[in-house]
Amino acid sequence: MNLILGEMSYLLFASQRVSSKKIEKQGFNFQFNNICKSLEDLYLVQSQNDQSNGIMAKEYV
After folding, report:
1. Which position among 3, 6, 23, 34 has the lowest Cβ density within 10 Å, counted as fewest Cβ atoms?
2. Residue ranges of domains in the chain
3. What is the three-class DSSP state of 23?
4. Whole-number Cα distances in Å, 45 to 33, 41, 50, 59, 61
5. 10-26 per-position pLDDT tens digit
6. Alpha helices of 1-61 — where are they, by DSSP H?
């Protein structure tokens, strides 16, 4: 990527620290507290949909 984007590749791969405190102070409530719970819910919903449609559940990694 460094070859393609040059110095701009740093922006793509640099670590970003973000905080939700500002929007939470404004009254926004998240359905999930962290990414793990969100992904777990997505996986469970997909698995349930696959089973109800007669599709074998897929393994997501």
Report:
1. 3
2. 31-61
3. helix
4. 18, 6, 9, 13, 16
5. 777 776 777 889 999 99
6. 2-5, 9-13, 21-25, 35-52
